[in-house]
Amino acid sequence: MTAPRLTAALVILLYSAATAAAAGDPPERTEGGLGSVPAPGARGREASLSAPEPRGGEASLPAPERAADALAVEEKGALALDRIRYARFSFAGPIGERIERNIDRWILTAPVANPGMIEMLRQRDRRPAPQVVPWAGEFAGKYLISAVQALRMTERPEVERFVGSVVRDLISTQAEDGYLGPFPRAERLLGNWDLWGHYHVMLALLLWHERTGDAAALEAAIRAGDLICRTYVESARSIHDAGSHEMNMAVIHALGKLHRLTGKEIYLRQMREIEKDWERAGDYFRQGLAGIDFYRTPRPRWESLHDIQGLVELFRITGDERYRRAFVNLWRSIAERDRHNTGGFSSGEQAVGHPYSPAAIETCCTVAWMALTVDMLRLTGDPRAADELELSTWNAAAGAQHPSGRWWTYDTPMDGRREASAHTIVFQSRAGTPELNCCSVNAPRSLGMLSEWAVMRAPGGIAVNHYGPCRVSCALPGGARLILDQADPRTTYPRGGDVWIRVEPSAPSDFAILLRVPAWSRETEVRLNGSRVEGVRPGEYLAIDRTWRAGDEISLRLDLRLRIWVGDQDAAGRISIFRGPILLGYDQRWNAFDEDRIPSLDARKVEGSSVAPVDAGPPEAAPAAADGGPAVPRAASSAEPSSSARAAAVDEGAARSTPAVPRASSSAASAAEILAPWLLVDLEGADGR
Question: What is the value of pTM for the model shown?
Fold first, then answer.
């Protein structure tokens, strides 16, 4: 796969910082189902790890689960994997620092610094009428979605209290008829992106209710859903008439969740009407079922990805495999054709059929892609979806967030500068909401989603998808508690290839641990208590099914040899270089030469090379090599099979590098010397240029 180069001004933070662009080869089309999750072990267990987790002073609640978890509708379409409810996550390293800074400098400050986030809903019928953007109703919902996700990753009670106060303030603005938007009575739900705004608010309220059991939040979501149904399906109106089709029809996703939770048939009726309306808009079901690539569908904008999530809800409710098949086909087409080297999605806010366009890669689009990919992982259990999430998290997401936690980008380009969304799309700000725009409120969700895919419930056990310093605590069936601890000094990933996982059940317990083996790690070594485990295959889960006892240790050594992606179209003559999940990049502050002096690399010599980070500061000077270019070791192995055609294209000559490499002092210079500046951007020192 391929990608253009990053310019001098794009800040790239790797493990001692991870902030820019990365990508591995997208999943290949396969015949038949994905079926990558191993079947339960010989004991045939169906372990459910959704037993509630105590929070704070809360007592442990064994099954049956809380009322907040009870579903009124039996699901006919089964998920392969799912989030472990009430699990506690604690992340360390660069990702942990980013999460904490997001909490301190956004979650706890945004509603205070931008009081109009809630107040615009309260002022909707005042004079003069508030002048808001058509999608302003999304701001509170998007903020709260990421805020509730963040609560799963912190033990700080003041954060929970603060988020709860924002939820209560939001509910207090609900009109008597259930309306929860910023538009005057005569316009309610009939135009703008009003249904889109309600979609996000309803998702946020349902997440809060799931976490806390807050009946008021559930009631507010139900009242909003009832109003939508009264306005449309019960009044013989069509949501198609509200315009902004891919935006407003996305409410099908929230209605599906409400139907499963409450059993109210009116929500399913409204979903069916939206499904009919799709045929005059994005036509997602029929197009996906026919195998049409997403970029060729009638509505290839990014907002459509939330409509497509509605296909998962329809599958879960009905069990109709056609919904699953349509969803998978659309997801695969995006992964193969429109996902950029950074793990970001969209070119100019939509799919265009190739990932080389220099058009803006909007952060909201990447968040939607990650949400869709979480659903892909849940639906199919294909670990390649987890590879995609890892890629997006370490590069597109971390690259969109300023390391201070104060702002996020609108556009995190493959080749260009990062700037705050409040600058790029300043037209969205208003008095009372100076920092609010679609991306500033939505981007933190890219970090929050770690709580949904890092460790998941699987048939007969759990799946470990995220590697890096972290600690996860959850309940096991039967009342035992489990801690999975990667916060070991020996865990060096992703800067190094070593991962150590300490397994700590509170009592000996039988279950399977499924370890994600990244598709890009061609040679992976796994050990259990020091003994090598066989059967490790790239792009699959490795299931270790046994009786686990406190002190058991799993170690992984992942293959971090360099991989390349050769550019095409707008990126022709350029390559991207990856080391593990990280896309390497040029940063002007860490190189003594400027962008116009970026040297060329022979891609044939880069592929498969092994390099190690070197602890050193920015170079004061970098003398030119005798041959005028950097020396890179010849590849230790042939290119990946899926890269053969692209590698052949490089045989015609050296390709321009995506990340720049400082000139070596001699043709015999080691790869470590050459690549050191890529790996040593200081997380604390990034200035967001």
Answer: 0.82
